[in-house]
Amino acid sequence: MSVTLFDPLQLGDIALSNRVVMAPMTRSRASEGDMPNDQMVEYYRQRATAGLIITEGVHPSKTGKGYCRTPGLFTDAQVAGWRKVTDAVHAEGGKIVAQLMHVGRVAARPNKDADAETVAPSAIRANVQLYTDSAGMVATEMPRALETREIPGVIAEYAHSARCAMAAGFDGVELHCASGYLPAQFLHSSSNQRTDAYGGSVLNRIRFVVETLEALAGAIGAGKVGYRICPGNPFNDVKDDNPAETFGALLAATANMGLSYLHAIQMPQLGIDCQALARPLFRNNLIINESFDLEKGRQALADGQADAVAYGRLYISNPDLVRRFREGLPLARFDPNTLYTLGGKGYIDYPPAP
Predict the structure, then answer these.
(1) Which of 66, 86, 95, 114 lies 20 to 30 Å from 127 when distance is taken between CA atoms?
(2) pLDDT of 34 over the 90 cut
């Protein structure tokens, strides 16, 4: 009998009631101090029937922030704020993990604290522009290359954030290794031109990610740790000479770590079948994501392509997506104009199906 989207799944230490995962999506609603707020509590509570919620990217330190109105997870106040979110999700029977996202060089100065640096593997600016509330679209800041001696401290910030996640009641954490952020900057040959133990060869370029995953596993247990990849994705100005080789080496290096899951963004148009690359190498649970609908997600599980399917855009306007899938109800369309705006409009005002 084939697996369905509505079957339970043991994801490492995390028991899911179904295999419909809410993908991480930046929504830019955090309050001053990078704080979660009551609107965020309601947003995640509404979507708690997902088997698993993966939060928007949260920065593990003030250095790791680059966008406006994104939440952090490294202070006592932030822990208390996130505790309201996790309590609300758990009260509805859901599970939730925090996606840890250090942006590295993908940062705009107006979005950062005055004393927060912008750092990266190499002093190479990302050729993109970012939105700021104070100045509109601006160029990213020129990063400072991390000294070799500083890298263990950055990894320790991730581990501290993971411990904060446990204090806040999260069920686990996900390391964001895609979209051109700091881990991806170490992985890709275009953004990593180091000559020390963290640059050059493939094994050196994957070292930062491997050591960070080891630190997260050591801090909270491997069964509560997942990570997200998208081989070949040039988003935020990264490029690799051989992404299949680079990510194949990463998958092999993490295969026996006992991690909760791998979250793979499936974008065949990039020339790499991420699912086909991951399945033989990564032996634990696989979540796949990118433009799935009900039928494609159902087929992916039936064919054994993955263990769960993550949905992003559909969750914006369909807080009760699991019920709509299960009962064959129509899906609501979201308003793209309110994805990142302030307030509850287009955020917590999408009603459940009647």
Answers:
(1) 114
(2) yes
